[in-house]
Amino acid sequence: MKNLVVCLMAAVVLLAIASTGIAKEQELIGAGATFPYPLYSKMFDVYSKEYGVKVNYQSIGSGGGIRQLINKTVDFGGSDAVMSAEDLKTAQAPVLHVPTVAGAVVVTYNIAGSPEIKLTPDVVADIFLGTIKKWSDPRILSANTGTKLPDMAITVIHRSDGSGTTNIFADYLCKVSKEWKDKVGLGTSLNWPTGLGGKGNPGVAGLVQQTPGSIGYVELIYALQNKMPYAGIKNKKGNWIKPSIASTSKAANIALPDNMMVSLTDTDAADGYPVSGFTWILMYTEQRYGDRTEEKAQEVVKLVWWMAHQGQKYAEPMEYAPLSKAAVEKAEKLIKSVTYGGKQIMK
Amino acid sequence: MIQPIEGGAGQTPARAKTRDKTMTQTKAETAQAHYRPGFTLSEAAFRKILYLAGISVLVLLIAIFLSLLIASLPSIKALGISFLTGRTWDPVTLKFGALPFLVGTLITSFLALLISTFFSIPISIFLGYYYREGKASSFVKTVIELLAGIPSVIYGFWGLFFFVPIIRFIETALGVPPYGVGILASSLILAIMIIPYSASLGREVISLVPNDLKEAALSLGATRFEVIRKVILPYARSGIFAGILLSLGRALGETMAVTMLIGNSNFLPTSIFSPANTMASVIANEFTEATGAVYLSSLIELALLLFVVTTIINIIGKIIIIKTSFEA
Questions:
Q1: CATH code of residue B218
Q2: The complex's ipTM?
Q3: Mutation target vs A (from B88, B166, B291; most A CBs, 10 A cutoff)
């Protein structure tokens, strides 16, 4: 009988040891942007199989990701927009913006026969401001000689939910139109001067497909996957650029700043599509906060490093624009600057 | 909080025994009750559970109200009364005026209520008076209850593909901008969504009208229509109204289907064809991406406003129910 008790106790102790061993398997938590979510889930799935580190990413939107990072409830955030000065201030500690992939926003439309159309930056701005009201407007026609456009009213379709897509689009319009900058401005949600709102990319796409004469904006991936027509746009160098994965990547062929908190809209890149943008992983430069262990900090850094290198090969098959070589180099420097208690984590 | 519960529990056996005329003294009653511990204990425990359930609902309601109020303090401080009167909702310049959403919510809900009443009252009479029993009746009853079980996103989709093209056709014929989506589309879909609530309750109260009354009216030579008009509707009106009130509550808070059909435009609507927006829809749309203290807190203040509007409408409704009830 005594032996049995001893045996049982030994079993319990062994089990306890074993379970702490299991508990040691790290789990990282991230939250944020919905745009890179399909890619991130693929990346994190591969990563957990290779390294045994589970990553739980919740696509709650960039704003939510920033909020969660500020509240320190996640190991990293995801965002399509650079954190605002106000948010950086509330975060109290420096936050790194490590780019992972780039994406583009395209202008889609519903015109009978889906002809290919081209738009100049000022025309795009004036359509979304509501000052160009008809498809037969001479300013639209002059860029599309040879294309038959109907004498039809334009219905603008925008996002009704706050979105990084809106932010990139507004960022572009702010740069090309002073009127837009003064009247509407930049943000994830805007006070739209005209038009209807649809929830999410599917909402906008649905309204555009249903409303004859409408124009809207969606992510490039969404337009590609759903075979929607999209307009070519004249970039800063005066070249007509059709949005594609390649022309999105090329938009980043500029002198990139060290902190990578850079907008890719209306860049000087000659072959770049002008309505492009990075999506970032957000993390604190100093990883020693709250009750974080050094181990956890190392795991986060390892993960982000992997995403900027090995992870990049999953981008293009899923229709995301991978980082250019220059961008990867900048990302490396950023990841190396992460510290734990002042000590550099990755050398 | 515990004191009244125990006091209440103590009263149970006492009240039960008041019919028993052999016992007169309260102390003796309770003493007697203690000799049957199984009975009293379960009785007391049950009573406690009921009290607890009742109080917890109250606590929950107050907690929701308080947490909304506290979270919206920053925007109340920053915006003041302009939150209620302002017509601009601009997250960029941090100007938040909820008037267009307040108007949008009220118009869509009451228009939906008006449309649904045309269907729900006849349905109640049909099922509560004409065809109270039988297979056909229970089939219709089940179908109506099924309507309440359909997820709102399905209503939204159906509205988008069925109502919107029809409305766009009408708009083109009338010469107004052919958006399709807007107040009319969302009110129509809301009307269908809320029919089950008012129809079920209406049927219930109409079938509860005493047969003596109906038979008395019939024996005096009243026609069926006269019975409905002069006996059933006056007798059941407060119950029918309660059903309508229940469905109004549902219409005010409906989010998904409305978001898909209302056009999400932040302007004051000018006609029933205009695109508009509702409070619930704005919260659902913008909450995920809202950053910054004032913006976030404005959205919560919008929730608070919706809460208050729903409460006020319910209180007014309760007063009308009391005033119109048969006994009064």
A1: 1.10.3720.10
A2: 0.77
A3: B291
